[in-house]
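hey
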């Protein structure tokens, strides 16, 4: 079976996950389980979107629904984690390490400046991306939008399986 043949199943999964996440907002354990499953379902939807669109095997509406549902499912848990600071700190440390490795025994003041400059620059870029993901996620995770997208995914998957 070709991987693109999994599009209806993926649309059903992402549609159900969007509906369950919208309807179980206040139940803590079920919310975290659906966030985890939804995150991986969103990753799968975006992976299928990239593979199918690069091969030209998906139609336009399937591409749109996979993209919206995938981004909606991924952005919900990512908006709760402040990953910009963690990645900036790790990359600033790596840049400082490799700078010291290339230069060979650099001055500690120079290395501190390299660390601060690289960490700050990377943090600003990643913070912009984090805020952008949070803004897009708030649009896609608005309950009426999420319910409509989930229902559209289910209906389109039904149509794909019939034809």
């Amino acid at each position: 079976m070709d991987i693109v043949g999994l599009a209806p199943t993926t649309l059903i999964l992402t549609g159900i996950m969007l509906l369950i996440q919208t309807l179980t907002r206040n139940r803590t354990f079920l919310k975290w389980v659906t966030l985890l499953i939804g995150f991986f379902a969103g990753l799968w939807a975006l992976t299928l979107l990239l593979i199918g669109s690069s091969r030209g095997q998906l139609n336009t509406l399937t591409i749109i629904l996979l993209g919206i549902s995938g981004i909606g499912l991924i952005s919900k848990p990512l908006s709760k984690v402040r990953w910009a600071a963690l990645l900036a700190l790790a990359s600033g440390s790596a840049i400082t390490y490799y700078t010291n490795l290339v230069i060979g025994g650099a001055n500690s003041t120079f290395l501190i400046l390299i660390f601060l400059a690289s960490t700050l620059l990377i943090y600003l870029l990643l913070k912009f991306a984090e805020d952008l993901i949070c803004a897009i996620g708030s649009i896609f995770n608005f309950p009426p939008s999420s319910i409509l997208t989930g229902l559209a995914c289910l209906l389109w998957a039904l149509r794909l399986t019939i034809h």
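The chain has a mean pLDDT of 85. Residues 49 and 63 are 6 Å apart (CA to CA).
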